[in-house]
Amino acid sequence: ETELIARRDNVLGSSYRLQYRRPVHFVRGEGMWLYDPDGRRYLDFYNNVPSLGHCNPEVNAAMAEQASRISANTRYLEPRLVDYAERLVGTFPQELNRVVFTCTGSESNDLALRIARLVSGCEGVIVTSHAYHGTSEATAMVSPNLGDAVKLSPAVRMVSLHGPAGVSEKQAAVFFEEQVRSAIADLNRRGIGVAALLFDSIFSSDGVWVDPPGFIAGGVKAVREVGGLVIADEVQPGFGRTGKNMWGFELHEVVPDLVTLGKPMGNGFPIGAVVGRKTSMDRFGSAARYSNTFGGNTVGIAAADAVLTILRRDRIKEHAHVMGERLRAGLEHLATRNPGVRGVRNAGLFFGIDIGLDGTGAAGRRAMALEIVNLLRDDGVLISTTGANEDTLKVRPPLVCQAEHVDRFLEAIENALKKAAAPV
Ligand code: PMP
User: Fold this and answer.
1) Ligand 1 in contact with 276 (CB < 6 A)?
2) What is this model's ipTM?
């Protein structure tokens, strides 16, 4: 193991990070479980890509069938591509009726930025202060979450999500709008102008923020007043994760101009998309060229088509809502007995759990959250951390999780909390 880590570091370099103090090697996945070479199983409460379960047999069969017939690009007539595109846009509000396919979330955001910049004629992008939007140069430059490792674009402005702790719902909305307005004013003063407000609809890397409903509406309005586009990054919250809704932006009572998709769209096969309003998409389409060799290829479409079919047929988002309620109730109960849990936020099966004991400061809270993640890993349960101070547990199980998995997770986190809080 140590030798493999050394060889890995040697050939892959330092940008490849391993998760957990004791890294894990998985050889097989099935449903909610990942298996190591010794046959030990780990409950996956972290991976949101295989949202229909690891190695979903139906999705795999659809891909295998397509791959053994033909794998082709979008320049040929392919009924399934058109059928899927129609079904996909059918899950959006009717104004959002055009789609372009990509391979990753980064490509989707990159394309959305190109569209917004072309349509608005401006460069400026407003993002939240710990946002992550992708790997390409343009998306990395609007991803403050990458920290000092990346130089942010001079055209980016950051907004925080909430005022001081304990603000009312109305204050949260006013706070957000004020910041957006001052970002707009600054971008305009410097002649940069506003191309877009780009936000992750569940603010996953900002620490998972959901409430209050409608708190971003004022900011959205302000951006539109100056001709900027509103881009919802649904790479994390999309495809039913937030429970009752198919899309995270529905939590916020706004209809974006562009929506970017990725991760769970193919349950593990790389496929993404930008869905948008006809006017913007067509302006871009006629002014610029976008040809993506693998975006929308027949195998990816087969995977995505199977995913959408299962999501519908098995009422997965409704199930995610029910399981999310169960997990939330369990965590809230846990919080009453355990001072290490400072707060629980969720939409469906996307949770942020704030960790830390009173009086331990930011570093103490971060250390405790990290300790819990590693204790859980040792106990065979996978999660990670998020948030400005990385002291929020990020919990996003595949959406097919059942009551028994939720209960197992609750038991494991309670044990981890007790151990992490115990004096050394
Ligand atoms: N947007 C968000 C919100 C993400 O979380 C990610 C990936 N973590 C991306 C975009 C980029 O997606 P990808 O890694 O598929 O390019």
Assistant:
1) no
2) 0.99
